[in-house]
Every structure is written in structure tokens, then in C-alpha cells.
């Protein structure tokens, strides 16, 4: 599991340091099961009970896929839940001196972020008491289900998008690279490893 701050820090170095060696994989915490990760989140929330998780049978997922393009796409990626992920971040650690955020710390951040979001709406999360906090805007232009169905075009420009916030993720028209917005600056990451700052009058299909 890669923590967003670790990925963002490496991305910022790649975009601003011309003498930086070619980065490899972002430094990531050792792999754990979904159940172990859920247990960490519960412990970070002060809960001692065990996570209650159940697996949806592949046959049921196949039937539901007849009615939902999103679930049909999920069925096509089931191998991600049955085969191990292999990522080698040795070069990033040895050449750049980067390391990963402990998974327990990331779990605590997840709990804190979820609590803040729910508190803004006056509800509770993880069984903790909610308190009033300052509300922040979350802006989204489309849905992942639209991408699954092949909707790769949109008319909103980056200039318009950046008027709604300074941090986010998404993609560009025609799936032309991954989009990451940090500190109000938009970066485009392509499959060849390049990182560029696109024109603000460019368009994109989805961002959250």
C-alpha cells in the first residue's frame, strides 16, 4: 500500500529537480491482507472488534455484471484479489533515500480524514462522537463508471477545474495520462515515465 504523501513527495521531486535520477516505484509499505488492513483501521479508531468481511461469490458477481457495467469491470479485474502484487522499490530507496510511511500511521490518517468528513455533516464514524468543524468543498466532474463505459471526453478546461481546488486526481481526454494536482499545480504522468505541466486550457474527462 502506497501512502499518498509518499507518492506526492516523489512526484514533486520528479517535477522540480532536473538532476534527480529516474525514479522507480514509489516507496510502499509491506503488503498485508484486506482483513489485516481493516483491523489496523479499527484499531486506529479505538475499536477492538474484528472486521466483518465476506467475499462475494464470482458467480454472483457474474450475474450482477449483466445489469451493471461497473460490476462487470470489477469481475474482469478479480485477478487483483487472487494474485500477488509484485513491486520493487529498491532503487527509489537506495538512490533517492526515500522510505515509506508505516501502514499503521496511514490507517490513522484514514480514520482522521473520514472522521473530519463525517463531522462536517454532523454524523459519527467508528463509534466516535462528532464535533462541528469547518466544511470544505469536494468537487467532482464525472464518475469512474463513465470511464468504464468509454466516456473519455469532457469540455471543462483545467483553468475552470483549478478554480475549484488545489488538490486532486483524475485523467485527461482520451486517457492521455494520469492527472495529479498538488498545491494548485496540475501534473500529467504518462506511461513512458514523463511528468509535465499541461496547458490550463486543456480538457479532461474526470477528476475527484
How would you describe this protein?
By secondary structure, the protein is an alpha+beta fold. Helix content is 38%, strand content 9%. A five-stranded antiparallel β-sheet has the order 4-3-2-1-5, with helices on one face. The longest helix has 18 residues.
Quaternary arrangement of the chains shown? single chain
Percent strand equals: 5-15%
Q: Return the average pLDDT rounded to an integer.
A: 76
Category by helix and strand content: alpha+beta
Helix amount? 25-40%
Largest sheet data: 5 strands, antiparallel
What's the helix-strand series? HHHHHHHHHEEEEE
Tell me the number of strands.
5
* Low-pLDDT runs: 116-134
Side by side, the strands of the main sheet go 4-3-2-1-5
Rg estimate, integer Å: 19 Å
Q: Termini distance?
A: 20 Å
Form type: globular
Instruction: Give me the number of helical elements.
Output: 9
Give a brief rundown of this model.
The protein contains nine helices and five strands.
Describe this protein with a few key phrases:
single chain; 208 residues; alpha+beta; five-stranded antiparallel beta sheet
Element layout with pairings:
Blueprint: H1 4-16, H2 34-44, H3 58-64, H4 69-76, H5 79-82, H6 90-96, H7 103-120, H8 144-148, H9 158-162, E1 168-171, E2 178-182, E3 185-189, E4 195-196, E5 206-207
Antiparallel strand pairs: 1-2, 1-5, 2-3, 3-4
Helix pairs in contact: 2-7, 3-4
